[in-house]
Amino acid sequence: MRRNDDVRFTSCSTLKVPLPSRPPPINLPILLARTRNSLAQLIDSFKTRSGLEQFWPNLPSRSTESISKQSLLCSASLSLSGASKGEERSSVGKSALLCSASLSLNESAQFGSEGREGQQKGHSSSRYDEERVLISEVLVRNKDGEELERKDLEMEAMAALKACRANSALTVREVQEDVHRIIGSGYFCSCMPVAIDTRDGIRLVFQVEPNQEFQGLVCKGANVLPAKFIEDSFRDGYGKVINLRRLDNVITSIHDWYIDRGLFAEVSAVEILSGGIIRLEVSEAEVNDISIRFLDRKTGEPTIGMTKPETILCQLATKKGQVYSMLQGKRDVETLLTMGIMEDVSIVPLPAGDTGKVDMVMNVVERPSGGFSAGGGISSGITSGPLSGLIGSFAYSHRNLFGRNQKLNVSLERGQVDSIFRINYTDPWIAGDDMRTSRTIMVQNSRTPGTLVHGKVQEGDINPTIGRVVAGIEFSRPIRPKWRGTAGIIFQHAGARDEKGDPIIKDCFGSPLTASGKNYDETLLAKFESVYTGSGDHGSSMFVFNMEQGLPLLPEWLFFNRVNARARKDVEIGPTRLLFSLSGGHVVGNFSPHEAFAIGGTNSVRGYEEGSVGSGRSYAVGSAEISFPILGPVGGVIFADYGTDLGSGPTVPGDPAGARLKPGSGYGYGVGVRLESPLGPLRLEYAFNDRQDKRFHFGVGYRN
After folding, report:
1. What is the pLDDT of residues 445-472, one digit of tens each?
2. Which pTM value belongs to this model?
3. Cβ atoms of residues 581 and 571 within 8 Å
4. Nearest 5°: phi and psi at 122?
5. Contacts of 337 (CB under 8 A, 6+ apart)
6. 166 three-class SS
7. Cα–Cα distances in Å, from 204 out to 136, 143, 151?
8. DSSP 8-state class, residue 380
9. How far is CA 15 from CA 5, 9, 541, in A?
């Protein structure tokens, strides 16, 4: 997260607030380990500033000229100073009522006697806590005994009183609680009760000292907390008396800001300086070091890993010097798991000594780096035969080549007609690139059915297969959030062959199978693709745009431009899911006829065989589905599809679609069931088309 400078703002134009040398600042050493008790600690610091912790001793009995009742107390101690020698004993001066647990009375020398001392020893402080004194008047004054300049503060203090009212009998405990309430209002830094004996009775005066008016702020250590957030939090209080309760709410909001972002930080100290300047200190736990610890898959003990530590560290968004974030740490764990080379990842934050920083330890368990695999699938290009569409596969893969998360895959797929031999090498993140660019080098030799465009009509017709040798390199990287771009150069050598494997250049209707008229076409393609994914799930919104440009660097190389786009939108209504998809494309230039867009089939218009709706230079296919759960992993679906070649069928060299009487447009509808499996959803669908034909369709995975 981006750092910001220390925040300083005052009413002046300059941001730096010089600390005055005198008078000395009022220190409020509040270590706010938890937001909830910060105010309580601040108030406690005020209440203990006097340092008076005496208990209220017993009071002596008095003559008729003196006070006959126990004088008042408060939250601390009450000391009544007797009259001087020149004063009448019937008039008792002001008595400081200090914050302690009991009341003490200091008399003049004339009032001291052994009898009184004996009487005081015979009473306990708790007894006098419960004895009541009649109060005739309750006032709020400043620390000098004068009226407060601000009547609103006097009203705040009076409003805080609960027990202390005129013409009420009070105990020490009740006065003490009201002193706490005045301090608890947040507007005052001290409160001292004073009892005055008048001819009308005892007057109880709360001598208070209001807090300073807020004039500025100094905030240190807030490197990631936005300055605007701090300024906005304090701006409403500028020029007003500092209220400790509101200050506590601001501190709580600062803590919440960090918590919402998973950051380790807290307001560690608050200080009110002279001049009404509030000084905040924020402690942010920065990342001191990041270390990788490999654990054995079976024992869980530390071991030596295959992966280079720098390969893991470059994947982390958390860096040294940043404030440690639990949310970012969670995303880092997910990033490492998506690499495909880790079986388990966990983060253990440890304190880095007494520095206030955090050491991050990444515990990782590696997966086996490589191995052989075998499987099977279904090809959409074969529509007849006892083993229609079935293919088998065998592959060797290494998912962590050289310990740098580089992938090597060598695979062979073989079917009734299909065969693909492929070698792929992928570097998911090219070293030294800040944009997370990946590189893929690919070599492929394939043979696929040509029936989608040039299928035979009757027995004895030629059923061509298309052979391709492809080699290329692609680079891919994120463009912006949820968008990814791919660019590359691909060379293709492609031609048609009959069932015997001999090269052919025309189909059974005499339509050309190559654009050049030779046994094969050669093309150098510049490819660009942009992909948008919503949540990243297969059922979420998606948009794919693909463009291929033929580069005629040699005269015999084909020159054309092909554009293809697909969009999908998913809407959930309760347990029901609505899925809308639309795809389309267009080709301009001289291209191989077998590269025409084929319409119809399991991933196009259901109810038709593969490619039997049409094949053209242009196409558009739309689909709508309603899926719903049935039982456990089994779900149902209702669908409708429509596709058209937009009248472009005759523009394909040789018009293969017109020769085979393909309609050029059509629709299908039906129902089906879906079964979730480790391979993806298994789809079994029964569809009708507009020609009243009906077909079963079976597929594995999601529709393209």
Report:
1. 999 988 889 887 777 677 899 999 999 9
2. 0.68
3. no
4. -85, -5
5. 345
6. coil
7. 8, 14, 18
8. T
9. 11, 5, 49
